[in-house]
Amino acid sequence: MARLGKKPIIIPEGVKVKIENGKVYVEGKKGNLVQEIFPNLSVVVEDKKIIVKNEVDPKNKKLYRKTNALWGLLRSLIFNMVKGVNEGFEKILEIHGVGYKGEVKGNKLILSVGFTHPVEVEIPKELSVEVSRNTIIFVRGADKQKVGEFAASIRRICPPEPYKGKGIRYRGEYVRQKATKAGVGATK
């Protein structure tokens, strides 16, 4: 096992961490985030480090294994919160296809991706969306999960198709192209 849960999280300059009522509050220049602490785990802040501890006795094997898995998860969630409020997260999407484009108007992302009407997507208030050159969409925010979910919901509107490669895809995503049927329209 990796034992990631034991590794302390270093708190960068300008980030405040507070633990109250079974919740971890992280505050920084990019925003504020809250995470509930799982049962049988505890979180301690000691000299610019966050330490997550498993409170279950290792002799109780069944419960210890279950909380061990949550131990690493909670540590990763808190690490992502600290990174998010300090640096932020970003997903980049690309629109491929002739005439396909996107634009931001107010708090809506408007996509023209081959349907009879433009698709309007409401942008969550904690995220910022920017469209560059009509075909590159930047989704930015402090919460890693919300950034990823919103980017996935945009991609789901028009996923890349395997014959021409048209659609919305993540930057760097490889779309395997299929060959079209051979011999269509051939006569004897």
Describe this structure in words.
This protein has 188 residues and is of the alpha+beta class. Helix content is 21%, strand content 37%. It has a 4-stranded antiparallel beta sheet with strand order 11-12-7-13, with helices on one face. A hairpin with a 2-residue loop joins strand 5 (41-46) and strand 6. The radius of gyration is 23 Å and the shape is elongated. 21% of the residues are buried. The model has no long low-confidence stretch (mean pLDDT 88).
Helix content: 10-25%
Q: Order of strands in the sheet with the most strands?
A: 11-12-7-13
Q: Beta-strand percentage? A: 35-45%
Q: What does the overall shape look like?
A: elongated
What's the helix-strand series? EEEEEEHEEEEEEHE
Oligomerization category of the chains in this entry: single chain
Structural class: alpha+beta
Q: Between the first and last Cα atoms, what is the distance in angstroms? A: 64 Å
Rg (CA only):
23 Å
Sheet bearing the most strands, described? 4 strands, antiparallel
Q: Which regions are unreliable across 5 or more consecutive residues at pLDDT < 50?
A: none
Number of helices in the DSSP assignment:
2
Summed over residues and divided by their number, the pLDDT gives a mean of 88
Write down how many β-strands occur, each being a DSSP E stretch of 2 or more residues. 13
